[in-house]
Amino acid sequence: MSTKKKEQAELLDTDDLDQDEEEGAASAQSPSEDTSKNLVARLSRRSDGGKPLDEADLQARLERHPKGGKLPSLERPGTAPPSPSATVVDTNPDGERYAPVNLKIQVPLYVQDWLDQQAKARGSKRWHILRALKAIGCPVEEADLYEDGRRIRGSARDRMR
Amino acid sequence: MPVISYASGKGGSCKTTSVLSVGVELAMKGGQVAVMDCDPNQHAAKFYKLFRKVQVPAGDSKRNKNAPVELSGGGSFHILPDVTEKNFASALREAQGAAAFVLLDLPGVDSKLNLIAQLNSDLVVIPLQPSRMDLDDAFRAADDVDHASTPGRYVESRFLLARWPVLGETRTTKHVRKQLEKRGDRNRSFSVPLFERTIFKEMTFSGKTPGMIDPDSNAAMNISAMTTELLQTLDDMNNRHEAVA
Fold first, then answer.
1. Which value, to the nearest 10 degrees, does the dihedral of the CA atoms of residues B20, B91, B69, B8 take?
2. Contact predicate B80/B94, CB 8 Å
3. Is A160's pLDDT higher than 70?
4. ipTM of the complex
5. Is the Cβ pair B170, A13 closer than 8 Å?
């Protein structure tokens, strides 16, 4: 063993720098494949793990934790939370989609006029806005992207016939 | 349906490598696995894009973009990207609805998101490399987990020795083990370390875990042994908690 290697070995409290890599790896031998597959099956069946999320309880536990109010947030101020994936739909605990909510924003008058014109030509203002949001990366579901949700009534319905 | 967080207040401690290796291994053993990528760097999500390319035939890749990747052993693997404090709840519900095993890759900093994730976990795995900095931050993370349990809602932690030298124990690794032993039974360590191997770095370029490349390789056996120990730990925890209840 070279002097440099000896020094290194001394520092690391090991004189086995020349030993085969396999020796250390021996402790990583794979146990029976069947055992692990059985465990996967058993743990997958159990219903007691993965407790359902109780947001009120979570908030209480956060407040009780010694670090609860002291930790920094990683959220960027002013940004909307991104969706975890395009398939993630905000659902209630029963798995149903939340009802649509009203979004009230102020826009310049000329924007409103333009939107009115577009909506007269095709679709609705809502459809044009959601389509534009989707174009810049907002994960709008196809199911929410219907052209016009307005009911057709009276003389307009007669004209459709 | 266990929820397992991989946490540490320090970056580069092998959280993402462990989550991806163990997650895919669980899926290869037949488990339905969902990984929530809570790290703003989104390294797990980047791996998943490559993984999908390798696993899903080209014709299917667009059609099933958001579907979990089905593996030959009957299991599936899926990653939910961009999980933040605000969408954590909906992401966890989605993950629990779709998978039996939910793994959380947390940011390598102390943050509110880490705490929220730990409070919702059954087990928090704290990887640490053989270094003083890793040890200090791992102990801090373990202390946080100790405070996360409440009556009827148990959260346990285990240290995972990561990037462990393959050549054998060194003075540093022995010292780290001694420090961990001093903590006693409160936060035990897994007996199987994650060894330092080049293939774990390659994984991020190829989208293939060691078990997918060569199931008989030392690295694949390492991951398989780690996964089995994790499963045994979860099973023991369940049995213990049942006995208490």
1. 0
2. yes
3. no
4. 0.79
5. yes
Let me know: does B233 contact B154? Beta carbons within 8 Å. Answer: no
How does residue A46 score in pLDDT terms, banded at 50, 70 and 90?
low
Label residues B39-61 b or e (16+ Cβ within 10 Å = b): beebbbbbbbeebbeebbeeeee
> What does A39-91 look like in DSSP terms, one character per residue?
HHHHHHH-SSSSPPP-HHHHHHHHHHSTTTTTSPP-PPTTPPPPPSSTT---B
A5 touches chain B (CB under 8 A): no
With beta carbons under 8 A apart, name residues in chain B contacting A19: 167-168
Of A18-32, A63-77, A84-98, A101-115, the one with minimum mean pLDDT is: A18-32
B224/A25 Cβ within 8 A: no
User: Between chains, do B241 and A29 touch, taking CB under 8 Å as contact?
Assistant: no
Nearest to B107 among A17, A74, A84 (CB): A74
Q: What is the DSSP string of B99-113?
A: -SEEEEE--SS--HH
> Cβ contact (<8 Å) for B218 and A16?
no
Q: Which amino acid is at B178?
A: K
State both tokens at A12.
């690391």
Residue A81 reports pLDDT greater than 90? no
Q: Are B140 and B187 in contact (CB under 8 A)?
A: no
Name A84's Cβ contacts closer than 8 Å, sequence gap at least 6. B36, B80, B81, B82, B83, B87, B90, B91, B94
- DSSP class of residue A143 equals G
